[in-house]
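Quick one, tokens below:
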């Protein structure tokens, strides 16, 4: 399995109803749990938004400026499904951002597609709208189909993450450093960041799951770990606990 569609197809074939991404935000009280099927549906919708609505083509560079959040994992999956390279700096053909990056990236919206998410529960829209030219994911994603197949399927040599190919990304994830096969990983690292990318790719590749936690105290983390029956832990910054 050396491309994202292969990885996702295996997950959907093996146990589509099991939890894949569980997100806690103790600052807002949100708990969102996505099964394999639900996560795949969100990936398909965002993929269609990027590729079919906004014409972000295979081989493009998507700059991702998102905090630790379940929607960040979806945006990554959508990019890889389309054969788009995820980057964090340099030139980009499109941008995905959250509330904190809205003002910064709105000035680029006349030049490239800028997709913003309010990071609300259920991917809700920005309550007061977005600047002209910016695409509100919470408005535009709902009309997208629940299944997606790229016109040009990703291949091994397509760049996936900041110069790393799809094959390199998924071979590394399959080898695993942070998660036992089939395990449940508790992490505070941002999956949509260079230090935290493996907190998503390893659960995907090794038939595991991710419990992603933001803004929690040490005591709260221990409670979540017990409640969610985690088997492995990853501390903030991508260093295993």
């Amino acid at each position: 399995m050396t491309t994202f569609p292969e990885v996702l197809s295996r997950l959907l074939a093996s146990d589509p109803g099991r939890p894949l991404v569980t997100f806690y935000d103790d600052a807002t009280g949100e708990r969102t749990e996505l099964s394999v099927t639900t996560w795949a549906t969100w990936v398909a919708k965002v993929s269609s938004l990027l590729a079919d609505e906004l014409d972000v083509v295979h081989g493009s560079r998507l700059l991702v400026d998102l905090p630790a959040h379940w929607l960040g994992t979806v945006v990554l999956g959508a990019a890889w499904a389309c054969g788009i390279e995820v980057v964090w700096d340099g030139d980009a053909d499109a941008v995905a951002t959250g509330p904190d990056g809205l003002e910064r990236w709105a000035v680029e919206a006349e030049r490239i597609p800028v997709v913003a998410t309010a990071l609300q529960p259920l991917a809700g829209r920005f309550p007061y709208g977005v600047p002209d030219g910016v695409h509100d994911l919470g408005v535009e994603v709902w009309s997208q189909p629940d299944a997606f197949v790229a016109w040009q399927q990703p291949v091994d040599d397509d760049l996936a993450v900041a110069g790393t190919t799809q094959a390199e990304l998924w071979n590394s994830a399959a080898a695993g450093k942070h998660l036992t096969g089939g395990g449940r990983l508790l992490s505070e690292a941002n999956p949509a960041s260079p230090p935290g990318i493996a907190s998503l790719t390893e659960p995907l590749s090794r038939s595991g799951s991710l419990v992603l936690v933001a803004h929690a105290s040490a005591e709260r983390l221990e409670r979540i770990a017990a409640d969610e029956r985690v088997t492995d832990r990853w501390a903030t910054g991508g260093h295993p606990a």
